[in-house]
Amino acid sequence: MASGNDGDATNGSQTTGSSPAPMLPNHLVGQNVAAPLIVPVNHVEKPEKFNGLNFKRWQQKMLFYLTTLNLARFLTENAPTLSVGESDVQALSAVSVWKHSDYLCRNYIMNSLHDSLYSVYWEFKTAKEVWESLDRKYNSEDAMAKKFLVGRFLDFKMVDSRTVMSQGQEFQVLLHEIQAEGMALSESFQVAVVIEKLPPSWKDFKNYLKHKRKEMTIEDLVVKLRIVEDNKTPERISSFLLLLRLPKRKKDHEANVVNEMARDVADINLFVVISEVNLIGSNPKEWWLDIGATRHVCSNRDLFTILESVTGERIYMGNSTHSALEGQGKVVLKMTLGKELTLNNVLYVLEIRKNLVSGSLLNKHGFKMVFESDKVILSKYGMYVGKGYMCDGLFKLNVMTTINKNSGSSMYLIESPDLFMAWKTRSC
């Protein structure tokens, strides 16, 4: 690749890796004269050609590429000089070796420039001159780009027409670009900003996150957002109702509710219910499977086999209304084929007009739910439990009756904190 003079001076010194470096005269020892250089045959992939955009990224890739070729030193070294009338063969050879290596480095850089830039920087004679000229021009432009990054950061807003996760990933890339420019952002600040950028339909969940006392990392927030978004359907993205069960506390004035919510939010238990379950006129004895609900909920006192009253506790709904939590207890559902499903810790809420079986709790305790052709089949450990069918957008369970607490039938129980399943024995 070198010109004639360069090639003649280096033929003997660069053919093998074992060739010793030429001994330098004393007046050249202090100068950065390159030893004979062997360029590796197998090295990393060559960076894409620089077209004037994303200079810092290209610069880092190019620096690494030249490092693998043992040429990175020529980006900062000045060319060695010879004294007037120098005739020492070793000195002439060493300078020629340096020039040849610099020639390689310069042309690796030039060949990584777009054609429109190649002709601009061809006039520079050394690799250092090319490198420094590019750095001066495009690093100053990158400094101007900081202002545009900040503008994009301030203007960024999530919208309901796209998924929150995809928009969140875009925003994380923007945050990373800002940090790469030396503008440090604490993680707590990043979390707060992502929460604030959530779309309008996430208003209730946004308020819930704002009131949390416990610090979250970006990873924690992403997990929470993914869980909530997975529970939402595109058609009902604004139809979720957040129910926050507040701990018992004496209150003198209703006007203090908001302030006390903020103080108690660290102890809040969150569970999600689709707002359609609050429709008036539903059959109070029917049960619906809801994969979005994280607690079992019942509005019919007669369906409980065991019910413990709860006083002084309220349920705060996402639409800024309050409902009393009347109690908590156990409900036994008689499924098809004699199977009985017992739900523990069922919330007794009068204002919820559809009784809900939490799909997430079923899944948590080993139940398998198969959804196909507008039907759902429940099983556990490969054994059939029950079924349901699609009705008005939800899956209605095929429940025959509800067992009262005086039932004397013997049952085999598989217990768990929130539910157990029983197989009722039949007399011959």
Automatic annotation (TrEMBL):
**Top-rank taxon:** Eukaryota
Q: Which InterPro entries match?
A: PolX-like_BBD
Q: Where is the region Disordered?
A: 1-25
Question: Spans of biased composition, class Polar residues?
Answer: 8-19
Pfam families reported for this sequence: Pol_BBD, Retrotran_gag_2
Q: Where is the Retrovirus-related Pol polyprotein from transposon TNT 1-94-like beta-barrel domain?
A: 287-367
Please identify the protein, giving its name as recorded: Uncharacterized protein LOC116214393
The source organism is Punica granatum (Pomegranate)
The record ties this protein, via PANTHER family, to: OS08G0421700 PROTEIN (PTHR47592:SF27), PBF68 PROTEIN (PTHR47592)
